[in-house]
Amino acid sequence: MRKHRKYIFLFFIISIMTIAATCACAETHTYKDKSGASCTEQRVDYGAATVICSDVNGDILANWVCEYELEYSCRNTLTGQVQKGGFDPLSDSLCTHLCGFSKEDLK
Q1: Domain extent for 62
Q2: Which of 19, 47, 86, 95 is at a distance of 20 to 30 A from 71, taking alpha carbons?
Q3: Would 81 be classed as within a structural domain?
């Protein structure tokens, strides 16, 4: 049994690392419009996101914490405002809904 202890421990460590790697993925996109305002969208796992809207000078106008699937529900941590609406996470960005960017600005 003593010989197998290190293999069990190694298996346990590899399992934890694999689970952590698949659960803690984050995807970040930064968009700028023609005026220079920016929107940074960070999707953490599937179903959670943070969206930061900034003006031309880099000042933060809104900091949204969101949960989404086919709808989104976001809370602005600066003002407490809540926004909800329909959302397609595969082809849409929360920047269009929360920061006022058009789809043309995101390209």
Answers
A1: 26-98
A2: 19
A3: yes
Secondary element (H or E) of residue 14: helix 2-23
d(CA 39, CA 29): 8
CA distance 66 to 72: 7
Tell me whether residue 40 is in a domain.
yes
DSSP assignment letter at 3 = H
The percentage of the chain sitting over the pLDDT mark of 90, rounded to a whole number, equals 43
User: What residues form DSSP beta bridges with 53?
Assistant: 39, 62
Sign of CA dihedral 44, 47, 48, 53: positive
Q: Is residue 55 part of a domain?
A: yes
Give the pTM.
Answer: 0.72
In-domain check, residue 7: no
